[in-house]
Amino acid sequence: MAALPGPENVMDLKGTAILNMTRVILHSDLNNFYASVECLYNPEIRSHPVAVCGSQSTRHGIVLAKNNIAKQFGVKTGEAIWEARSKCPGLVVVRPNYMQYLRFSMLARKIYENYTNLIEAFGIDENWLDVTESTRLFGSGEKIADEIRRRIRYELGVTASVGVSFNKVFAKLGSDMKKPDATTVISPDNYKEKVWGLPASDMIYVGPSTRRKLAAVGINTIGDLACAPPGFLEKHLGQWGRTLWIFANGYDDSPVTRLDFQPCVKGVGNSLTTPRDLCTDEDVRILTYVLADSVAERLRRHHLKGRTVQICIRSSDLAFIERQGQLSHYTCTSSEIAEKALEIFANSWDWSKNIRMLGIRVTNVVAENECGQLSFFDDEKRLRREQLENSIDRIRSRFGHYSVQRAVLLKSGELNANPVEENVIHPVSFFR
Amino acid sequence: MAKVFVEVIAKFTKDGKKVPLIIKWEDGRSFDIDRITDIRRAASLKAGGQGIRYRCRINGRETYLWLEEDKWFVESKT
């Protein structure tokens, strides 16, 4: 396998200008992550097909991850447990242990930190690493990738696939090409042979809908995408068309975010799929307060206030809508967020269907100490409300989330939850 | 191989290191650790676990002892 040219080689051959252009990016993907951790901790299930699935009783009963044996039976991530069992009768189903997965994710990250500080997480089990500068210390990108894989296997007992390339998109493609526990190099010299023959849907951000649109105009492979005129793609897919053309041609120059870089928060949100369908306004009121409490607490924790309240609703037939409204001022209190969310809900839902999932998000955020328009009438009331909720935060941090609750939440124990601690939010966006 | 959690008497050094001194087996027997010959992070595929692995010499025989978060375990044949 040919190694990517190191910076020195590139400088010798083509001069300093190229040195700055050729990056060495790794994309490390922990194989079948949840299932691998479960198989490590339960040696007796390793030789069986294993799927890590959410709880059926709380209606999260889908396959979250599966091992290679289950994969051979056609078990797919995202399908219902009964579907997986019908394909694979001997399937061993285990409950997820998120704290353990987070621990492993952090340990993997600690290994990456030995090679670079430019690490960008993409979910709990994937990371991009920019090792351009580190090649001087540790050798080529391929060598670093092999060493990282060896350490992950030895130190963590799970495996990783690593893609090595000159941009993030091809590095990610590389990590998907050979699994498990393999390194794939996609260099400026071989990317046409290695990448262009792959289906367009293998590339990041080409989902089922984009794939269909591309197929309708005769574009099936990444090579087709790369060779299509960008103007033509833009006409069919809008701005995305040009972005995908850039990706397919290896022109992606998006940086790997620095380890110590905190991206600015654009919004804070929480959603919950409830153990049973919501079928009355009272159900929605209860869940709205649960979610608003969580969103407000997280806004305060990050010293932020927001002005736009969005709600999203998934009905029992899985249809999805999103609506939003503006507040007259910036806020970080749950009562104001909840009241606005309920107002938006009342204007958007006619109860022709029950609700499976409800979410609330606050966007248009500013720092809490930013100057805002004062009001003659209700500023004092608002200030007192903020002080009250700050006090509640302190009580909860000492005595637990459920030590102080709204009376309305006592009406339904099954809808009451603590999304702040029970939901872990991972960074997921490629574009930062 | 089974994963057996054990009691350990350890020394906490000034620079924050943990040095296991005695392993107390589940049947009450104690084993003095004569020497630690290697310390590194490693997985135990046989017992199913992961942590800081101490290679210990006990009565002239080598054995591995893991510190997984805040618990100690060994690989046991039984």
Structure description:
The complex is a heterodimer of chains A (432) and B (78). By secondary structure, chain A is of the alpha+beta class. Among the domains of chain A are: 34-98, MutS, DNA mismatch repair protein, domain I, CATH 3.40.1170; 204-254, DNA polymerase, domain 1, CATH 1.10.150; 267-422, 2-Layer Sandwich (Dna Ligase, domain 1). Chain A has helices at residues 7-14, 16-21, 33-41, 68-72, 81-87, 98-112, 135-138, 141-156, 168-177, 191-195, 208-216, 222-227, 230-237, 239-248, 281-301, 334-348, 379-399, 419-422; strands at 25-30, 50-53, 63-66, 92-94, 119-121, 126-130, 160-165, 183-185, 267-278, 304-315, 320-331, 355-367. In chain A, strands 5-6-1-7-8 form a 5-stranded mixed β-sheet. Chain A has a 4-stranded antiparallel β-sheet with strand order 9-12-10-11, with helices on one face. Chain A has a 3-stranded mixed β-sheet with strand order 3-2-4. In chain A, strand 5 (119-121) and strand 6 form a beta hairpin. In chain A, helix 6 packs antiparallel against helix 8. The longest helix of chain A has 21 residues, at 281-301. Helix content of chain B is 0%, strand content 71%. Chain B is mostly beta strands and 78 residues long. Chain B has one domain (2-76). In chain B, a hairpin with a 2-residue loop joins strand 5 and strand 6 (61-68). Chain B is globular, with a radius of gyration of 12 Å. The chains are: A alpha+beta (432), B mainly beta (78). At the A-B interface, helix 6 and helix 8 of A face strand 4 of B.
